[in-house]
Amino acid sequence: MRAVDGSLKRLQRDCIDLYTQHRVDIDTPIEEVAGTMKDLVKMGKIKAWALGEAGIKTIERAHKVFAPVAMQSQYSMAFRELEQNGIMDTCQKLGITIVAYSPLDRGFLGGNFNKNTTFHKTLDFRASMPRYTKEALEANQSVIEFIKKVAQSKSINDKPASVAQVALAWILSNKSFVIPIPETTKIHRLEENLNASLLHFSLNELKEINKELSKIVIIGDRYAPNSDAAKSVGL
What we know:
Strand content: 5-15%
Order of helices and strands: HEHEHEHHEHHEEHEHHH
Mean pLDDT: 95
Oligomer: single chain
CATH architecture of the domain at 101-235: Alpha-Beta Barrel
Low-confidence stretches: none
CATH superfamily of the domain at 101-235: NADP-dependent oxidoreductase domain
């Protein structure tokens, strides 16, 4: 309650549209969390709530008490775990929107990373992730090359589509209940990302794209094994 009040004060708002529990709290039953969210809605402090990186059982248990409207999880053309572990199917069945964070795979699907790309050891958390080692970046160029081929046949406002735009447009076209949330610090990248909404794929195109993606093996875990981050997802 104190956290919500603090957020409302800092945001200078009377109500928060979507309040997200970004990781499952292993010390608090999800039923208690859902009940508290229900109270916050009744009090008019939030309009709805969302889970983050939760597993199927947690999603179902929360839904029985007070349904979350969204579930934030990592999802991209280079990270499709949600399609294999049942979470996407569960969210679709329960009418829960998936908010796809890192839809550009932490910048990798911008198309500019290669084996020579380095990350600051203390200021950039990607330096500790197996997905962004020299070996993984080199091996995973296969997905970039494929997306580039797709981009060659697409244009936006009479300009060739970029790798990033194809990656974002794929999420928007592939599942109607999935919303990507790319982040950037540059205005021109923001404009590029927004224009991805102008790019569309037919059902046949999506079928072929997904068929080819399924053949590509992505190297490297998203989090270091046994790290706190790795242990906090799928609970």
